[in-house]
User: Which sequence fits this backbone?
């Protein structure tokens, strides 16, 4: 890709576009900011959904107790026993 300029020893006021898509900076900035905001909205909804699923899963007190027991396991055999007991 070339700018078409043979030498930079010229009056720069006479030089026109030296890069592609001149004039689209505002549109591209708007698209970038809008996509960033949309991504945040999608991310927040996704995290809220995952949080609600986890909250619903641990409403059962037996599953919650098993998860606590599993998280306190210090050996592989304790972890296996906790899994076998119904988590």
Assistant:
């Amino acid at each position: 890709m070339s700018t078409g300029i043979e030498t930079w020893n010229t009056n720069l006021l006479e030089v026109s576009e030296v890069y592609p898509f001149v004039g689209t900076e505002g549109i591209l900035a708007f698209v970038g900011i809008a996509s960033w905001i949309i991504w945040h909205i999608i991310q927040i909804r996704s995290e809220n959904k995952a949080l609600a699923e986890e909250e619903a899963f641990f409403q059962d007190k037996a599953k919650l107790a098993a998860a606590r027991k599993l998280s306190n396991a210090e050996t592989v055999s304790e972890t296996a026993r906790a899994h076998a007991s119904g988590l």
